[in-house]
Amino acid sequence: MGKFLSDFKEFAMRGNIVDMAVGVIIGGAFGKIVSSLVNDIIMPLMAVCTGGLSFIDKKIVLADATATTAEVAITYGVFIQNIIDFVIIALSIFVALRFIMRFKKKVEETPAPAPEPTKEEVLLTQIRDLLKEQTEKK
Question: Does this model's pTM top 0.85?
Fold first, then answer.
């Protein structure tokens, strides 16, 4: 049992897992923001542009509600709303990733300065140059 717990701790604390957990949490919050954007801003604007048409209310009633049962309906308007949510989320993620990749490319393009030669390399270069001069004099 002790080995299992230590293996699990090592797995859970690995950098990628922690990064993924943070991404899932931020993604959940981002999803709520985008859903609010769609429900509270985009869909009312679409309703105004389409003359008051609201997708949420669109449904096909299969069986009306009775005293003992609820209405049975296919709510295709909610499905359309979820498709719009998905497209906006996908577009937002695409734009964010494109921005990040563009920034990352700029960082990668700046070359690192050449490292200073070590003392041994400097000494060997001087010896090489001296030997070269001596062979040229002969």
Answer: no
* Both structure tokens of 50: 């389409």
Nearest to 34 by CA among 110, 78, 91: 91
- With a CB cutoff of 8 Å and minimum separation 6, the contacts of 89 are 30, 31, 34
H helix runs in 38-118, sequence order: 43-49, 76-109
Which stretches of 1-138 are assigned E, i.e. beta strand?
60-63, 72-74
Largest CA distance in the chain: 116
Cβ–Cβ under 8 Å, residues 25 and 36 = no
CA distance 90 to 97: 10
pLDDT in tens, the chain (138 residues): 788 888 877 776 776 777 778 888 888 888 788 778 877 888 788 778 877 777 778 889 999 989 898 999 999 988 988 888 788 878 877 887 788 888 777 766 667 778 888 888 888 899 998 888 888 876
Q: Measuring CA to CA, which residue among 104, 100, 103 is closest to residue 92?
A: 100
Tokens representing 20 are: 């993924």
